[in-house]
Amino acid sequence: MRDFNIERPNESLRDAIREKIDNLNKPKGSLGRLETLAEQICMIQQNLSPTLHHPCHLLFGGDHGIEQEKVSISPRDVTWQQMINFTRGGGGVNMFCRQHGFTLYIIDMGVDHDLTAYPAILNRKIGYGTKNFLYEPAMSEAEFNHAIETGCDLVDQCYQDGCNIICMGEMGIANTSPSSIWMHLFGNIPLDECIGVGAGLDNPGLQHKRIILKKAVDNYSLSSPHSPLSHIIYFAGFEMAGAIGAMLRAAELKMTIMVDGFIMTACMLAASQLYPQVLEYAVFGHCGDESGHKRMLDLMKAEPLLYLGMRLGEGTGALCAYPIIESAVRMVNEMNNFQNAHITKYF
């Protein structure tokens, strides 16, 4: 895997940022989360007057070998069917991208279907789905590196087009399974507490999923050596590895990264195991309804912007939070201060 040069934002500007926010004509702290969010964006951009340019959304698609073990209520055909639906503008992600002015890229990282007839889908296919991690690693190290580089290249394209805020989403049946395992391995949380219903498993289905994922982790524990990188490679989907690469490259380029639900939060957790400083660039859009999402956010001390009970994925929860980010930027740029407004500063 390539080395990333991800720098923490320079702290020398923080006092000036806080002074500017505190001197806006409002009671100190009265705009709450908007104030801390504005401070974060200012720090990322190293600018007292931050701007948002050309927001982009990368939607990565891929299938998972573990789906063969019936850990999801949805069959894998849904992955390619939804990818095609996205090209027609009919998905939740399409609606929110249109609403908030995001350029949407639909990327086939490893869907188990030939999608080359759809030019709106970028063909970056590494394989027709990953291997079944119940029995073997989901992908090779070479495949993982390929996925990382693909995510980096896509971010580079967005950056060259003027983007400074980016969002990632996913489409891949059964991708809650590797997400749950990463939460267990990285957070040292009992596996059963990390596993949820995904797309809508009933109680027997949930119990079956727990049995399968426990077997997979037990089998993995017999292999060696173990490291954060080996955890990631063994269980990742191609779409998840692509998202990790995109997150790391975006942080390297000092872009703001909007983080979506359970799967993308798991990808950010994995990325932060490799480069903890990536979290300085992450804005967590929402806490979803998937079991364990809040606990995963807590592992990174992340404060999500929204609690809407969502668990669709695709990046939809993060996209819904974009107007809040816009409001934070407008606050720091457009609100008057006490001196200019001729208002007595009373604190």
How would a crystallographer describe the biggest sheet? Answer: 6 strands, parallel
Please count the helical segments.
14
Order of helices and strands: HHEHHEEHEHHHHEHEHHHH
What is the general shape?
globular
The strand count comes to 6
Please state the average pLDDT score.
95
Strand order of the largest sheet: 3-2-1-4-5-6
Structural class: alpha/beta
Rg to the nearest angstrom? Answer: 20 Å
Percent helix? 40-55%
Query: In whole angstroms, how far apart are the ends?
Result: 51 Å
Q: Can you walk through the features of this model?
A:
The protein is of the alpha/beta class and 347 residues long. It has 14 helices and 6 strands. The chain has a 6-stranded parallel beta sheet with strand order 3-2-1-4-5-6, sandwiched between helices. The longest helix has 20 residues, at 141-160.
Any chance you could write out the topology, listing elements then pairs?
Elements: H1 14-22, H2 33-45, E1 56-62, H3 77-87, H4 92-100, E2 103-110, E3 121-123, H5 141-160, E4 165-171, H6 176-187, H7 203-221, H8 228-235, H9 238-252, E5 256-259, H10 262-274, E6 282-284, H11 293-299, H12 316-320, H13 322-334, H14 338-341
Parallel strand pairs: 1-2, 1-4, 2-3, 4-5, 5-6
Helix pairs in contact: 1-2, 2-13, 5-9, 6-8, 6-10, 9-10, 10-11
